[in-house]
Specification:
Length: 434
C-alpha cells in the first residue's frame, strides 16, 4: 500500500498542532488498464487563486504522473511539476499541481498533462506517452478590480442532476469565482469516489476531460460536516487543495500542492473581502458515533487564533464589503440544536458562534453565508447576531439554490435562485464605513 502525507495547518509562523493531520492511504494501482488508455477523465479544477498563483487538480483512471504547462500566451513555455521530497507526484485517482510566479495582473493560459506509469520494480519503470489536455485561458480575480461577482453552491451531496444544472447555470452566469460551501459528499468510501465527486461537475459527456465549472474560473472550497465522513475522507486534500501556508520557506523543499495548507482563508476580490471558515462536524468530538476519530474542537480554536490575525490584513480591513462563509450557520432559529450537547445534531454551530462571532462583529462583518439545513432563508440582523445570515438550500432539485453576489462601489446585491433561474430571495448591502 502506497502512502502520502499531508499536513493541514494555518498560516502562522509555526503550524498549530491542532491542525496537523495523519497520513492518508492511497489506493493500489488499478489492474487491467493498458498504459495507452490511462488519461485524465475530468476537466481541470482551478483552485486557491492569488494575484500570481493558482492550484489545479484533475482526475485520472489509472496510475499516472502529471504536470501543468502554462504561460501568459497560448505558447505557454513554463512547467509546474508536483513532487514531494524528491519524488514526482503519482496517483491512480487524482493529480494536483500549483502554478506560481505568474506576472501580477496577467491572464494565464494553461493545460494539464498526464503520463501513465507502471512499476515492474524499482529499476524497471514503464511510462506512457504524455497526453496533453486542451489549452484554457484563466482570468484570476484581483483585489484591485472594480467589481466582484461570486457564485455560491452548497449541500450538493453527490446529486448528479442537481450538480449538472448548477454547472450549466454557473457557466451561463460567468462569475469571477465559485464557492462550494460544503457538503459536497454524503460520505467518502473510496479515493476514486472522492475524486469523481470533487472534480467532474460540468464535464462534457462526449469528452469527460473537457468542460467543467471551474476550469476557466477558480473554485474556493469550504468544507462541510459530510466532507469529513468516511474511510477515504483523509484524501480530500488531494482533490480540494488546501491554501498555501506562510511565505518565506524554500519552495523546492516540498513542492507538493497538498502536503500542507489550510481550509480557513481570506481573499479580496474587488470591493469584497471574503473570509472562509471550517465549521467541522455537527456534534461534539466526545460523541460515541465518532469512535474517537474526531478532533474538531481544538481545530476550531486554532482557527480563532488565525481569524484574529487574518482580520487585521489591510486588504480585509479596507474592503467596502466583508462577508464570511462557513458551511454550518453561526446563528439558529428558535428550537435549533447548537450541536454542543449529548443528543441530536447542530442546526447551527454553537462552537463556531462562541469562538468566531465576536471577532467577526468587531471587524464589521456584514453577512454570513452558510448551508447545512437544506432550506434557503435569510436572517436579518438582531441584537444577538448583528449581521445578516444567508442560508442556501439543497440538495434535491426542488430545494437546490444558486446564490449570486454582485458588488461594486455603490452596493452589494445578493440573489438566491432556484435551478430554473427564478429569484426566490435576496438582499442589498451598502458599503461599510472603513
Amino acid at each position: 500500500m502506497k502512502r502520502r502525507k499531508f499536513i493541514s495547518g494555518i498560516a502562522l509562523a509555526g503550524a498549530t498542532p491542532a491542525l496537523i493531520s495523519t497520513p492518508s492511504a492511497v489506493a493500489a494501482p488499478k489492474e487491467g488498464i493498458a498504459l495507452k488508455d490511462i488519461k485524465a477523465v475530468s476537466p481541470p479544477v482551478v483552485q486557491n487563486p492569488t494575484d500570481t498563483s493558482f492550484a489545479v487538480s484533475w482526475m485520472v483512471n489509472g496510475t499516472a504522473t502529471g504536470w501543468v504547462e502554462w504561460g501568459t500566451t497560448e505558447q505557454l513555455g513554463n512547467i509546474s511539476r508536483p513532487a514531494h521530497h524528491g519524488l514526482a507526484a503519482m496517483s491512480d485517482y487524482a493529480l494536483s499541481a500549483r502554478v506560481e510566479g505568474i506576472p501580477a495582473g496577467s491572464d494565464v493560459f494553461y493545460r494539464v498533462v498526464t503520463k501513465a506509469v507502471h512499476y515492474q520494480n524499482a529499476y524497471a519503470i514503464e511510462q506512457g506517452e504524455p497526453i496533453a489536455g486542451e489549452i484554457r485561458k484563466l482570468t484570476l480575480p484581483k483585489a484591485n478590480q472594480d467589481s466582484c461577482h461570486l457564485a455560491v453552491v452548497n449541500d450538493t451531496h453527490d446529486h448528479a442532476d442537481t450538480i449538472a444544472q448548477l454547472a450549466d447555470n454557473i457557466n451561463a452566469a460567468d462569475p469571477d469565482a465559485l464557492i462550494w460551501n460544503g457538503d459536497v459528499y454524503n460520505q467518502i468510501s473510496s479515493n476514486q469516489d472522492m475524486a469523481r465527486i470533487a472534480l467532474t461537475p460540468g464535464q462534457k459527456k462526449e469528452d469527460p476531460a473537457s468542460g467543467g465549472w471551474a476550469s476557466t474560473r477558480p473554485l474556493m472550497f469550504t468544507p462541510g460536516n459530510h466532507d469529513a465522513r468516511g474511510e477515504a475522507a483523509r484524501t480530500v486534500p488531494e482533490a480540494f487543495i488546501p491554501w498555501p501556508m506562510a511565505d518565506g520557506e524554500p519552495k523546492g523543499l516540498n513542492p507538493s500542492p497538498y502536503t500542507s495548507g489550510r481550509y480557513c482563508f481570506t481573499k479580496r476580490i474587488g470591493p469584497v473581502g471574503v473570509i472562509c471558515l471550517d465549521t467541522g462536524e455537527d456534534k461534539p468530538d466526545s460523541r460515541e458515533v465518532w469512535g474517537g476519530m474526531a478532533a474538531y474542537e481544538p481545530y476550531r480554536e486554532a482557527q480563532l487564533e488565525w481569524l484574529v490575525k487574518a482580520l487585521q490584513q489591510e486588504e480585509i480591513k479596507s474592503a467596502p464589503y466583508l462577508i464570511a462563509f462557513c458551511h454550518i450557520p453561526l446563528h439558529g432559529l428558535p428550537g435549533h440544536n447548537d450541536g454542543m450537547g449529548p443528543k441530536g445534531y447542530a442546526g447551527f454551530s454553537g462552537f463556531g458562534q462562541k469562538l468566531w462571532l465576536a471577532p467577526l462583529v468587531k471587524a464589521g462583518c456584514q453577512m454570513v453565508v452558510s448551508g447545512h439545513t437544506h432550506r434557503h432563508r435569510i436572517d436579518n440582523p438582531s441584537k444577538d447576531f448583528p449581521m445578516h445570515q444567508l442560508v442556501g438550500g439543497g440538495p434535491r432539485e426542488n430545494n437546490a439554490t444558486l446564490i449570486q453576489i454582485k458588488a461594486d462601489a455603490k452596493s452589494l446585491e445578493v440573489t438566491i435562485e432556484d435551478l430554473k433561474k427564478k429569484k426566490v430571495n435576496g438582499l442589498s448591502l451598502s458599503p461599510r464605513k472603513v
